[in-house]
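ok trying again, last paste got cut off:
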Amino acid sequence: MRIVTLNTWKNEGDYARRLGLMARGLQALGPDVVCLQECFAAQGFDTACALGKALGLFVAAQPARSKIRPHAGRPTLSTSGLAILSRWAAAGEERLALASDPRDGERIAQRLDLVTPAGDLRLLNLHLTHLRGPEGDRLRRRQLEDALAWAGEGHGGSLV
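nice, full thing came through this time. structure:
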């Protein structure tokens, strides 16, 4: 099984060009599962859905960090969340609010249960704080510990 993770960098830079480059790069890798972070979504724009369509994969998205961001030259209400693209449809999906810091904003974890030809699989997708120094280290540790404990709840298959 080929699993790829990618931080899509929201809608920064030349979004349309980057979206095309991400799609072509992922197509070349031929993944079974793609875990995405910082997935931009706004009226008429959706990174996870665009990549899912380009790759022919199912999309399970969890929006987060809703705020006004500049896009196409104007302020746009958008989210920057998590998504998992998969060759197999989801048997279950949930999200967990993680500990956060006001300087960093909302952080979440996403878990997705899949039934694959190789057996049951639970995927954990998360994007930990970017804060630096001892405070950031402590917060990242707490976020990871909470997410890992939550990811294993009530699941007997493989955890990735």
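cool. Strands lie at 3-7, 33-42, 45-46, 58-62, 67-71, 74-86, 90-101, 105-116, 119-126, 158-159. The radius of gyration is 16 Å.
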